[in-house]
Amino acid sequence: xxLGRAPAGGRDGERTEGTxxxxxxxxxxLLGPVEIRDGLTxxxxxxxxxxxxALLSAFVIHAGQLLSVDRLTEExxxxxxxxxxxxxxxxxxxxxRRLLPAPGGGHEWISTLPAxxxxxxxxxxxxxxxxxxxxxxxxxxxxxxxxxxxxxxxRALSLWRGPALQDSGKGPICTTEADRLEENRLTTLETLYExxxxxxxxxxxxxxxxKLTADHPLRERFYDxxxxxxxRGGRQAEALGVYERARRRLMDALGIExxxxxxxxxxxxxxxxxxxxxxAPHSHAPARAVxxxxxxxxxxxxxxxxxxxxELGLEQEALVxxxxxxxxxxxxxx
Length: 334
Known about the structure:
Order of helices and strands: EEEHEHHEEEHHHHHHHH
CATH architecture of the domain at 27-125: Orthogonal Bundle
Shape: elongated
Distance between the termini: 65 Å
CATH class of the domain at 27-125: Mainly Alpha
Number of helices: 11
Strand order of the largest sheet: 3-2-1-7
């Protein structure tokens, strides 16, 4: 199976806190074509047009942060904004508001403020949050339980449905975030294959690593992992051939030799270093079950605290509006 961009296949196994009504269960998805999973109806909402997708993406990327009119204008139109950019942006925001799921519970998705606009997630989530959470858990488990780490990292990668922020324009917000997320995906892939090697699964991953070295010819870590997998499979000559292939590609593209890590791997293979041997398979099933239970409980507490913080923020905004309205009605008020 190609783990580089696994197909979407249901939930990642984590418990979803809250009810299924209103915004609870709603998820904004950026890891592929931009869409919204309506927590109430279960349907997927796809914004029509690249500008609507870019606008939604910018809001989700900076959820809880004020985005100025100028910054959003640049994201949608670059250096060629329309003459009535503020009105055009306002129209796009209005269309996006109508597209979003019914918030319920007094929640407002997009707030209009004097200096710009702000998206409040409330109890809604994003697939990016889930990806980062699962990736972090996988990295944390790598040393003590590589099998469990690989399971978590596969779940994280299964959230990807295509290139991040696909078809969302080329504005600076979306472009920067797409590049950052792709780097996160590749780093997670590297950790996954390291976990697989620690589980003595070298024979199962050589084909996938061969493809990754072809797709990312300047990424040395994939060559390093492939060399180790081949060596452990009794294919020393092929492992050394991978080093030479990496060296040629780096010299042709960048004019540089491989870094110290890859050179060190090559020398270790030449010398049959003992530390290159595959580890004995072992099981950490009991520890895995305890860790998963504790992680789910902690995740629930964090979700409840996040919802309460969002509720307090909304209450504060409502009180500030009431206060401003009262002041305005006083004699001499503005």
